[in-house]
Write a structure and sequence with these properties.
By secondary structure, the chain is mainly beta. 11% of the residues lie in helices and 44% in strands. The relative contact order is 0.07. The structure holds fe (ii) ion. Fe (ii) ion (FE2) binds next to loops. Fe (ii) ion binds next to loops.
Length: 661
């Protein structure tokens, strides 16, 4: 209560302050700042003091009531409640791993926004986040859970609040961004949660997006339109500004091209060599965003082996999305394909960065990508603004490595005789499509869907009725879709159907059976394709890079020829562990190129799971049955004896395995 009274007196004495506001604490005091210790607290009261030319706080004070809901203890505040759009800069340092933060747009000590950093894992860290505090109750607006540690020197932190946009930069790098209408104006502050060595210096509040004068990015860069002789580089700045792209075969850039004044920048470099790595940088004002991890590879020749990653439906839960992206970037893919629903509502500007461009930033800056637009993009113009894709950007065809890719917009008309259908018909029959070793079609809505969390949806009837017959007629190899938030794989009349909708949005669960679909997991995941002209090693991984599904398209022709003397055309060589309680590995050998299936039956002969279906070719192979991931049609698999059967052509081998839970 003592501090509340003091605060009221202090506010009354402060006249309206114009911006800019500066306090370097070089006068030895922190006059004009008001201290609030948030009761009930422990290890307090606070001890704010100017020492060594900066403002310090040296007690471990923390608020004990709802500690992990509030993460607070003490705060100092200054400024004027009329301040609206501004950039709040602080240099800070801490040797304690608990919380320090910045308060902005504060109406009073209990109503404000806050940027809070907690490093200590024992206290829920590491995280850096933007909170909204309304009458002392906190709501998280944006969260970054990347590992971070306090350096032992001062770093610059900037909060840029313009309109509803709230962004925090650490040393010029965007850490978190949110959009919220609650507070349009207010004071600033500094805060500590259980941090007994907090140091703040050189506080400034500058009108407008002052941070832009030093050339900060809002998003990106991200790579688009891969060509054998070029690449398109895009990024977004917080003000309309000119930019520049630099590039070279090493980090010593040898060329540059200017980007005209814009918010969203799109610069195409050409005249490059095929299948070659280039380093690049994005120039903004006097600074260049560049480094050893800013590079791209130009498109390789059509017959070269390539690697794709494919994911989708990453919308809404950007923390889960980044988890999936973190797994994908370990694969160093040549091309990334997203099957759509990259944002919750394409009409909301902030979501394009918060849900897609920021969580996927470490993939998109090195790997060019294509998106098959989803229904949640809402046909918004932001989609066309943020991405550079061929032709009308919604339906288009391109080649990358041995595969010809046809992207369809299943949100727009695609029934027979529509413009899109006729275009698709021509594309499927084109020389480019038919001569390519592999032909893929990518669209958001699936023809067959087993998972969905509310009854009634089993895929798109119009895709089934009008597009699938075309795919079968023109020998499409794989159709990639999303929309359902799970992983599914199957096959109908020679065309493989895949759903990869586990990029971040809340997962759907198994609802109904399609005889064409035989692999199903409700799991966050992505797909990895290693492709040559002869075969595709197809794998799906969960977000921790555990293999959940694999198969082979085509044949690997460079394996050893079948050797004489092998005991049989197919043989299970081991099952381990056996008995098992979670997953069993089945090692087997085959001596022909005939199709292989690996199935699990219970002792009544009922098929419980099909865990592999491919033509792996002569040699040693393995399959996994993970009973936790492979619940049979939504039901847990009970303990008991099962039979694992590997069938190759008309030969088979069976072993008994025992599940003990
Ligand atoms: Fe969707």
């Amino acid at each position: 209560m003592r501090f509340t009274i003091f605060a009221l007196l202090a506010v009354a004495m402060i006249a309206a302050q114009p911006l800019p506001f500066l306090d370097y604490f070089s006068d030895g005091d922190y006059d004009g700042w008001t201290v609030y210790d948030i009761a009930p607290y422990s290890s307090g009261p606070s001890n704010w003091a100017v020492a060594g030319g900066c403002l310090t706080q040296t007690t471990n004070i923390y608020t004990t009531e709802d500690e992990y809901d509030v993460y607070t203890g003490t705060q100092v505040m200054t400024g004027d409640t009329t301040w609206t759009d501004y950039t709040f800069n602080v240099e800070w340092k801490s040797t304690d791993d608990d919380g320090i933060g910045l308060i902005f747009r504060a109406r009073d000590e209990a109503n404000y926004y806050r940027y809070l950093c907690v490093e200590d894992a024992a206290n829920g860290g590491p995280f850096r986040r933007i909170d909204k505090c309304v009458a002392g109750t906190f709501t998280i607006l944006a969260l970054n859970i990347d590992d971070f540690t306090w350096p032992d020197y001062f770093v610059n932190v900037s909060v840029c609040c313009i309109g509803e946009s709230l962004k925090v930069f650490d040393s010029g790098t965007l850490i978190v961004a949110a959009s919220d209408p609650t507070y349009s104006h207010g004071k600033i502050g500094l805060t500590c949660y259980a941090d007994d060595d907090a140091n703040f210096d050189n506080v400034s509040v500058l009108p407008g997006a002052a941070i832009d004068t030093t050339g900060n990015l809002r998003a990106g860069p991200w790579l688009q339109m891969p060509e054998s002789d070029g690449m398109t580089i895009m990024w977004e700045t917080t003000t309309e500004s000119v930019g520049k792209v630099y590039w070279g075969a090493t980090m010593s850039f040898t060329d540059s091209v200017d980007s005209p004044a814009s918010f969203i920048h799109e610069v195409t470099i050409d005249g490059l060599l095929p299948d070659t790595r280039y380093y690049y940088g994005v120039g903004l004002g006097d600074s260049v965003v560049a480094g050893a991890d800013y590079y791209f590879d130009t498109k390789p020749p059509d017959d070269a082996p390539v690697r794709y990653v494919i994911w989708g439906d990453n919308r809404t839960d950007y923390v889960s999305h980044e988890h999936v992206v973190d797994a994908m970037i370990t694969r160093d893919a040549d091309l990334a394909i997203n099957v759509g629903d990259v944002v919750t509502n394409g009409g909301v500007y902030s979501q394009w960065v918060i849900e897609y461009l920021y969580p996927a930033r470490n993939l998109l800056k090195n790997t060019p990508s294509y998106i098959s637009i989803g229904n949640h993009e809402s046909d918004a113009s932001w989609f066309d603004d943020y991405f550079a894709q061929p032709d009308n950007e919604h339906w288009f065809a391109t080649r990358y490595g041995p595969a010809y890719l046809i992207f369809i917009d299943t949100n727009r008309l695609y029934l027979p005789l529509t413009e899109q259908y006729m275009w698709l018909y021509d594309e499927l029959g084109s020389t480019e499509a038919q001569a390519a070793p592999w032909l893929f079609v990518i669209h958001h809505h699936p023809p067959y869907s087993e998972g969905w969390d509310s009854p009634g949806y089993d895929g798109e009837p119009n895709v089934r009725d009008f597009l699938v017959p075309l795919y079968e007629l023109f020998d499409v190899d794989i159709v990639f879709a999303g929309h359902t938030h799970d992983y599914e794989r199957g096959e109908k009349d020679g065309v493989a159907h895949v759903i990869t909708g586990g990029g971040g949005a809340a997962l759907d669960h198994w609802l109904q059976d399609w005889s064409y679909m035989f692999v199903y997991y409700a799991v966050y995941h992505y797909i990895l394709l290693d492709m040559t002209e002869d075969y595709i090693i197809y794998r799906a991984y969960d977000w921790d890079n555990a293999l959940i599904d694999s198969t082979l398209f085509g044949t690997i022709v460079d394996v050893d020829e079948p050797k004489a003397g092998l005991p049989a055309d197919v043989r299970i060589t081991s099952t381990s562990p056996n008995p098992f309680n979670a997953a069993v590995r089945i090692d087997y050998e085959v001596t022909s190129f005939d199709p292989v299936t690996v199935t699990i039956h219970d002792i009544t002969g009922r098929q419980v799971a099909k865990i592999a279906e491919s033509s792996p070719g002569p040699g040693k192979h393995q399959a996994f049955w993970n009973v936790e991931r492979y619940a049979y049609r939504g039901e847990p698999v009970p303990s008991g004896v099962y039979m694992a059967t590997v069938k190759c052509g008309d030969k088979s081998d069976t072993r008994k395995i025992e599940l003990v839970k």
